[in-house]
Specification:
alpha+beta; single chain; two-stranded antiparallel ribbon; about 200 residues; globular; 2 domains
Length: about 200
């Protein structure tokens, strides 16, 4: 675990870390991000493997306490789902918000919903989870589900209103999002990065 390096830095001030961010972002990299706050977690092995990379335009970087390695020591990282949740949500405080929700009692209990959201301990975290719940509630296709998820992440008021009419598991999709979605919007699961870390830690 001593090969797991984490750093918060200003993009452009450290050439090695900046280049790792640029490589990780690929075609999404924009030189206008130079001078912004960078955050990276990588495996300091040969070849170097980036696990988390993010950029923030906030005035000051949001330093994590505990660190990524601290959280890693507290989970069963032989469980891929646990590791995926940490890697996918750690950046900029998301994982801390999830832990707060996990430690609280849900507004309503529903064994069917808990089964659907089992891999995230009953929480609605990933984009595909919201899309699947929408399809289950409406019978719509995946294209419509993706549009719905994007509108929710954009905080479109009309979409939230429409979700109040979508019935699922004896409640509404709106109520499910209110009770089980701890973050503002959903996240993509970082499967490739998690697999790199999983191999390092377990194989």
């Amino acid at each position: 675990m001593n090969k797991i390096i984490e750093s918060h830095f200003i993009l452009g001030q450290d050439s090695k870390l900046t280049n790792l961010i640029i490589e990780a972002f690929g075609s999404n990299w924009d030189e206008k991000d130079l001078g912004q706050n960078g955050h990276i977690v990588f495996l300091d092995i040969e070849p170097i493997q980036t696990i988390i990379s993010s950029i923030s335009s906030s005035s000051e970087p949001k330093l994590e306490k505990p660190s990524f390695s601290d959280y890693l020591k507290k989970i069963d990282y032989s469980n891929f789902d646990n590791l995926l949740l940490l890697v996918s949500t750690y950046s900029w405080g998301d994982y801390e918000e999830i832990l707060k929700k996990v430690n609280n009692t849900f507004g309503f209990e529903n064994k069917h919903l808990d089964m659907v959201l089992k891999e995230t301990n009953g929480l609605l975290i990933y984009s595909y989870q919201l899309e699947n719940l929408f399809i289950m509630a409406t019978g719509s296709d995946m294209e419509q589900a993706v549009t719905f998820r994007k509108d929710i992440n954009k905080k479109k008021a009309i979409t939230f209103e429409e979700s109040k009419k979508m019935k699922l598991f004896g409640t509404t999709l709106h109520a499910i999002m209110e009770d089980r979605m701890p973050l503002i919007g959903t996240r993509y699961g970082r499967y490739s990065e998690t697999y790199k870390l999983y191999q390092y830690l377990n194989l």
